[in-house]
Amino acid sequence: MPQPSDDTLGTTTVSTHPHADSPHRHRWWILSVISVAQLMVVLDATIVNIALPSAQKDLGFSDGDRQWVVTAYALAFGSLLLLGGRIADLFGRKATFLAGLVGFGGTSALGGASTSFEMLVVARAGQGLFGALLAPAALSLLTTTFTNAKERAKAFGVFGAIAGAGGAVGLLLGGVLTEYLDWRWTLYVNLAFAAIAFVGGVLLLQRTTRDKTATLDIPGVVLVSAGLFALVYGFSHAETHGWNSTPTWGFLAGGVVLLGVFAWWQTRSTYPLLPLRVLLDRNRGASFLTILITSVGIYGVFLFLTYYLQQSLGYTPIKTGLAFLPMVIGLGVAASLASTVLIPRIGPKATVPLGMGASIAGMVWLTALDLHSSYPTDIMLPLLVAGLGLGLVIAPGLALATAGVRAEDAGAASAAVNTMQQVGGSLGTALLNTLATSAAADYVAGKNLKDPAVLAQSSLEAYSTAYWWSAALFTAGLIITAVLYRRGVPATDPDATSVVHM
Fold it and tell me: Are β-strands 497-501 and 488-492 bridged in parallel, bridged antiparallel, or unpaired?
């Protein structure tokens, strides 16, 4: 096996699959298996949202409690991702991937069969736990399966499109299952995804050797899990109690301190949970920030446009899901174009900021929505533009965030990417929801709260505020990526994939 070089200013070498001098002959089938698993994990962040009103009515829990059906998944998933990534590195990606599938399917079945609120929340936390095993294992398997630069670009184009569009697919599928079957099927459907991916994984994936002398970094596990839990919980608390709440800032501050201590400990640990060499490459650092900012913005679109379509325009759950299809299509096309054409020819320094710019345009366009907006010109077109922009950002971000890592660090790098997505989504939901709520409250101040027109307009003010802030975040992303990304395009040698900085 070729020895990976250290990250340098000039060239970063990506280790190949540990047991393959030539590409895996079933690699495209493996991509299909990994994609099914990734879709299951990503859509589960949104598929239950549309089913929540039905689940609440069936199980009889309060409005104050319903947030925990969503938050339990985010807390477990976000706080355990780095642990899951390191487990994949140390104990084998295939075994971790398959264990994650079995656990995710089992806890989904438990959630679907829930007879109480407590049972449903435990099941959702279990989904998050096993998702934290599954997601980084899936991405690291993709990284190590595709060693040819051109094929790897195509594979990441597909994976990036799924990662970006999964939330919209979840909204559509959740609407269909809830409207035509029952809310429980938004959980039972995962059994089909898990079964398909499990059979494919057993048949196609190869076992990888592992360093049997290595051990888990237990202090690191405790520090990062507690730190990420505090951050995600703080964001969730802000969503329901506001940013003026002392516990909100207490948890956020505690999370930052714990993560700072974790970073220090990683320089001392013999077997670090997240080797800092994974983060210190300039292109990878830019990619992690790209994924974080994009996750904030995209969750804002899903959340507020869903409310707008259903509450302001009276769309059904299914019609709401279908309304997002232009965004999904645009994202998929742009992700493929970015991975196979733009990045290999002009590199990320131009491509990713271009995507950020298109995303800004889409967000600003959405601020003009009102109670009489038409779908073709006022909703579909900005969604298409935003989707194209997000596709130009997400696929390169995912690919370059794991490019250049050593094979033994692939799981840790993949977990860091997923952590950025999860923390970004939690931050986006809490931050934008709080800003939107404040805007609505400011609008109705001194007005007749019994007037339906006033209430309707206050909602529009809330949504518009969220889109303006999303545009501001994408503007920050444009500046950051234009500055941080190095010039250069991917290149290969006979044994590895290299990112050569011109």
Answer: antiparallel
Assess contact for 186 and 380: CB atoms under 8 A: no
Alpha-carbon span 90 to 82, nearest angstrom: 12
Domain that holds residue 407: 21-216+271-501
Residue 9 lies in a domain: no
Q: Report the CATH number that the domain containing residue 163 is assigned in CATH.
A: 1.20.1250.20
Residue 497 predicted with pLDDT over 60 = no
Same domain, 212 and 248: no
DSSP lists the bridge partners of residue 492 as 497
Closest to 40 (Cα-Cα) out of 120, 97, 121: 97
Number of structural domains, the chain? Answer: 2
Domain edge (last residue) among 234, 249, 270 = 270
Q: What is the pLDDT of residues 416-471, one digit of tens each?
A: 887 787 777 777 777 787 788 888 888 888 777 777 888 888 889 988 998 999 99
Output b/e per residue, 232-268; b: 16+ Cβ within 10 A: bbbbbbbbbeebeeeebeebbebbeebbebbbebbee
Q: How far is CA 320 from CA 50, 161, 204, 312, 326, in A?
A: 10, 20, 37, 12, 12
Residue count of the chain, please give it: 502
Query: Cα(498)–Cα(491) distance, rounded to whole angstroms?
Result: 5
346 and 286, same domain (yes or no): yes
Nearest to 320 by CA among 57, 50, 42: 50
Same domain, 207 and 346: yes
- Residues 122 and 229 placed together within one structural domain of the fold: no
| Cα(69)–Cα(126) distance, integer angstroms | 12
pLDDT band at 6 (very low <50, low <70, confident <90, very high): very low
Both 189 and 168 in one domain: the answer is: yes
